[in-house]
Amino acid sequence: MRWSRQQIVLVAAVSLLATSLLGVAGWWWRSATGVGSVNGLELEAPKAVPELPLQGSDGQAHRFQDFRGKVVLVYFGYTTCPDACPMTLSKFARVKALLGERAEDVQVVMVTVDPQRDTAGRLREYLEVYGVDFLGLTGDEATIQELAAAFGVYYAPYESDTALGYLVEHTTSSFILDRQGRLRILAPYDLTAEQLAEDVRYLLRRD
Fold first, then answer.
1. Is 81 assigned to a binding site?
2. Distance from the CA of 7 to the CA of which of 57, 141, 150, 158 falls in 20 to 30 A?
3. How much is the pTM?
4. What is the pLDDT, as a whole number, of residue 77?
5. Spans of the chain below 50 pLDDT
């Protein structure tokens, strides 16, 4: 079933609001008790990620459960994004560098919000500029919509006056999954690479 733009917006907005409220509650609790601390918003109740099949930029089929055992940095973006996507991926590359040997325990994943243009091959060429082990995921529109809604991600294409024809408006926050494959931390776009690295280390120590 292909969702309408209104349905995508509603589902993503409700999911993002619920997740954000959980994160704010967790932040308040840690501030009041002094227990634990992250730079992003940590969910007190980790959120399961749907087991949806996607095509990887490595030519293999993947589900998020495949990455269990690693902390996963997740971003929803696209290869012709003019600003937020390259900035975020550059930060992820810096995070991996800051982690040193622990970088082997971290997987970077970008899920495309432009599946019509972002083939597995195109994602591979785009992501290898930032990291040879960065993985892109694509799929049919319905699957991408369902996964985005589960993360609370909004996206919608719009016509632009560029040679690209259209761009995609999308959520710019990042997401960090724990070693059990659960959504644990929401990372606002304005976090630095150093702050993201601290949050990743936090999950590596705890799990």
1. yes
2. 57
3. 0.82
4. 98
5. 1-5, 7-35
